[in-house]
Design goal:
Blueprint (H helix, E strand, L loop, with lengths): L11 H13 L2 H30 L9 H22 L3 H5 L2 E5 L7 H9 L1 H4 L2 H9 L6 H6 L1 E5 L1
Antiparallel strand pairs: 1-2
Helix pairs in contact: 2-3, 3-5
């Protein structure tokens, strides 16, 4: 009697990508490299934000305001959207040998990057680390909703 599969059947492209990830056993290393990439990308966003505040003449106490927080969020979201749409990786991901791919292994669509980027507003909490650790593909919520993965080159 055949044993029922533990997972639902997947399209051929997904099977090849998933099996290649399993063969490489790269999912745990990807989580570590994603964390390092975030530690590289965050200061870049902060520097760009700070330069914008200086240029706009809003450095100082006015930077710590609701408008300043919205500007910081907008700069961060624009940073991730632009780099992941144009290059499939932010500078931090690129330095760590990571890139964003769609679940079929191809380049993600701009719509998928938009979903992924907007989820960053929620995924930038300790809860995101827990959800990534529980996912065998080390996906955060933004990856799951947009059908993307972060893989090692």
């Amino acid at each position: 009697m055949p044993v029922p599969p533990s997972e639902p059947p997947r399209p051929v492209e997904e099977v090849s990508l998933v099996s290649s990830l399993r063969r490489r056993r790269s999912t745990t290393r990807v989580l570590t490299r994603r964390f390092i990439a975030a530690m590289i990308d965050t200061p870049i966003v902060v520097i760009v934000y700070s330069l914008m505040l200086v240029e706009l003449g809003h450095a100082g106490p006015r930077a710590i305001s609701p408008a300043g927080a919205l500007l910081f969020a907008a700069v961060g979201l624009a940073y991730f959207f632009a780099f992941e749409t144009l290059f499939a990786a932010t500078p931090g991901k690129r330095l760590c040998g990571l890139r964003v791919v769609s679940f079929d292994g191809g380049r993600p669509t701009p719509g998928a990057i938009v979903k992924r980027t907007l989820w960053r507003l929620i995924d930038q909490t300790p809860l995101a680390l827990l959800t990534m650790r529980r996912s065998w593909l080390r996906q955060r919520n933004g990856d799951r909703s947009s059908g993307t993965l972060v893989v090692g080159d």
